[in-house]
Amino acid sequence: MPVDKKSALHRLLLTDSRKLRALRIFDPFTQWWSITEVRFCVVCERPFMGRDIRFFGEDEFPTQFECPTPGCQGGFAEWKHPRLHL
Ligand SMILES: [Zn+2]
Questions:
Q1: Considering only CA atoms, which of 34, 35, 48 is closest in space to residue 79?
Q2: In this structure, are residues 78 and 68 in contact, taking their beta carbons and an 8 Å threshold?
Q3: Distances from the Cα of 12 to the Cα of 55, 84, 86, angstroms
Q4: For residue 1, how far is its CA from the centre of ligand 1 (angstroms)?
Q5: pTM recorded for the entire structure
Q6: Which tens digits make up the pLDDT trace of 31-41?
Q7: 43 Cα–ligand 1 center, Å
Q8: Are 67 and 44 in contact (CB under 8 A)?
Q9: Which of 6, 24, 39, 49 could form a cystine bridge with 79, CB 3.0-4.6 A?
Q10: CA–CA distance, 55 with 83 (Å, rounded to integer)
Q11: Cα gap 14→64, rounded to integer Å
């Protein structure tokens, strides 16, 4: 029976330092210096801090990242430095 990989993912509650490390590893578009840095999501048009991102994964290893706005499908490709949108 095939296993649905995505259904095995669950929300992870990580410490700020682990969140920052994961963002540094997985975000291919922007550099994260601090977990309190602000990004602007162009999908829901809202700013948020790095620590507000929803982290999903198996065990305690994050593999999927979602915008903090409920229902928003924004991801790294949609998260920009806010100064680019002033
Ligand atoms: Zn969003």
A1: 48
A2: no
A3: 5, 30, 32
A4: 35
A5: 0.85
A6: 999 999 999 99
A7: 5
A8: yes
A9: 39
A10: 25
A11: 13
